[in-house]
Amino acid sequence: MELQQLLSMGFSNDLASQALAATGGKSTALATEWILTHKSNSNDPNPNPTSNPVQPKLDRFFHSQSEPPSSSKQQNSHKEEVEDNESLPRKRLKLSPPPPHAPLSERMRPRTIDDVVGQDHLLSRSSIIRSAIDCNRLPSIILWGPPGTGKTSIARAIVNSSSSSANSYVFVSLSAVTSGVKDVRDAVEEARRVKLKSRKRTVLFVDEVHRFNKSQQDSFLPVIEDGSIVFFGATTENPSFHLITPLLSRCRVLTLNPLSPDHVSAILHRAASDSERGVSQSVAGAREVVVDDKAIEFLSSQCDGDARVALNALEISATTAAARSDELVARISLEDAKEALQSKHIAYDKAGEEHYNLISALHKSMRGSDADAAIYWLARMLEGGEQPLYIARRLIRFASEDVGLADPSALMQAVACYQACHFIGMPECNVNLAQCVAYLALAPKSVSVYRAIEAAQKVVSESVGQNEGVPLHLRNAPTKLMKELGYGKGYIYPPDNPDSSSQSYLPPSLQGYKFLHLPGAPDNNG
After folding, report:
1. CA–CA gap between residue 73 and residue 328 (Å, rounded)
2. End-to-end CA distance of the chain, in Å?
3. CATH fold for domain 353-442
4. Angle separating helix axes 409-424 and 388-398, nearest 10 degrees
C-alpha cells in the first residue's frame, strides 16, 4: 500500500523502495520526508531523469486520497504550477477541473465564492467569510447543514478565492469516515513544514467531523490554538450534540439552509448549459444535451433542497435520454426526470436532531388539538422508518401529561395502542397509531397532574419536609412496642367517619400545601 502511494506521487520504484526500507516501511509520510531530505541521494542505481523527487505529485496525495489519478497531461501541468521547487516541499492548491468521468455534482462544484448559488446569509458582501477573504485571515469554522447544501463546495471556494493573495492557503481534505488521529497528525506536521518554509498556512478540511469521537476531536484543539492550521469542519448533525464544547469555542459555527427550488433550478440550468463541465460530458459521444424546463422544475421541487440529489438525477436523466435516442441531440424530458427520481427522499434520522424535531412537532400538534397536523407528523416519522413502539410510548406519556384528568380514559387508549403495535407491527399498526393520535389531539386537555407531580418533586428536592418524619397517626402499628410509642394513635378511619376531613395527612411543615390545582380550585400555598 505504501509503495503504491509513493509511486502514485511520481517517485521511481527504486527510490520509493529505498525510502520505505530506511524508514521502516510503515509510514508514507515518513518515507516522503526521507526522499525530500535526501533529494541528492546518489545511491539510486536507476535515476529517472523525467521524475524529479523534489516535486512529486504530493498535491493529490494530501488533497484527497480518494480522487482518481490525473492524466499524464494533467500531471505535467501540475508540475508547472510549483512555485519554488527548492524551498517548498509541496505545491499550493490549484483547484483544477475534475476529469470528465467524475460525477456531475463533483464537476459542477463552484470554483470561487462568487460561483456559489444560495446561502446568501453567509456569503453576502458584508459577511464574515467575505471579510476574511478580503483580509486574508481565514478563521476556523464549522459548516453545519443538510446534505447537498454546499458545505464542501463553500470550503473549497473560500480557499480558492484566497489563492490570488501572495500568502495563499494550502488545502488539505480529510474525511472522518476513513481517517484517524494519525492522519490528522501527519497533515499537521506537513502544515508546519509548509508554514516554516513558505509562510503559507494550511486549511485542514474534515468532512463528517461529527463521526470523530471525543478524544479524536481533542486532537484538533492544540493545533487550532497555536495557529498550525486553519480548521474547516463539515457536519450534517447538530454541533451542540456531536461536537465537544472546546472545539466549538475555537470555531465559528455557520449554519447552511436547504437550497430553495429557485437556487436548485439555477444550478441545474448551469449544468445544462456548461459545455465544459456540464451534463453534456456525461453522455458518450459528441452529443448535445437539451433539458426541458419542466424537467428542471420537477427536479428542483422534489430534491428537498439537496443540489447533489438534483444533479445526480439530471445526470441519470441524460444517460437515459441518450440511450433512448439515436440522434445527435439527447433531449431530457419530464418523464426522464421522473424516472431518475422515482421516490422522494424522506429527511429523517432515528437518533439525530430530526428525530427529536419531529416527535416534538407531533407532541405540540396534539397539545394544540390539531389532529390533521398531528397525523401528518406521525406519517413523516413512519415514512422515515421510526419504530412504532417508540411513538406509542410517547403517546402514553402524552395521555397523562397533557390530557390527564380531563379524560382519564386517554391513558387506556394509549396503552391499548402500544399493545396493538406490539401485536401486529408495521405497516398494519399505522392505523392504530393514527387513531390514538387523533383521539389525543381531540381530547380535552389538563396538565394539573403533570404540574402536581413536578411541584411535589421540587418541594422534595429542596428538602422542604423531605426528612421530616411521617406523622405518628399515619404510621402502621403492627407490634405492641410500636403501639406503646404512639404509632397510629389518633388515626381516624374515613369509611367509618365520613366527617373526618379535618384529619391532616401532610407533614407539619407542609400543612395546607396544595400540589394538585384543578380548574376553579383555590390556591392556598403561602
Report:
1. 29
2. 77
3. Zinc Finger, Delta Prime; domain 3 (1.20.272)
4. 170
Return the axis-axis angle of helices 128-135 and 151-161, rounded to nearest 10°: 30
C-alpha cell at 263: 437556487
Using DSSP, state whether 97 is helix, strand or coil.
coil
Q: What would the grid cell of residue 150 be?
A: 454546499
Element (H, E) at 329: strand 329-332
Secondary structure of 12-27 as H, E, C letters: CHHHHHHHHHHHCCCC
Q: Which helix (H) or strand (E) is 233 found in, with range?
A: strand 230-235
Q: State the pTM of this model.
A: 0.60
Q: How many CB atoms lie within 10 A of CB 459?
A: 17
261-340 maps to CATH 1.10.8.60: yes
Higher pLDDT, 350 or 384: 384
State yes or no: pLDDT of 269 exceeds 60: yes
Q: β-strands 288-291, 169-175: how paired?
A: unpaired
* Rounded distance between C-alpha atoms, residue 502 and residue 194, angstroms: 85
The length of the chain, given as a count of residues: 526
Cβ atoms of 68 and 99 within 8 Å: the answer is: yes
| pLDDT attached to residue 21 | 73
Using the 8-state DSSP alphabet, how is residue 351 labeled?
Answer: S
Which pLDDT band, with edges at 50, 70 and 90, does 449 fall under?
Answer: very high
- Superfamily name and number for 104-255: P-loop containing nucleotide triphosphate hydrolases (3.40.50.300)
305: how many CB neighbours lie within 10 A of its CB?
Answer: 22
Q: Which three cell numbers stand for residue 318?
A: 441524460
Grid coordinates belonging to 124: 453576502
- Sort 456 into a burial class: Cβ within 10 Å, 0-12 / 13-18 / 19+: middle
Residues with Cβ within 8 Å of 393's Cβ and at least 6 positions away in sequence, in order, are 418
SS3 421: helix
Chain segment 210-225, per-residue pLDDT in tens: 999 998 999 899 999 9
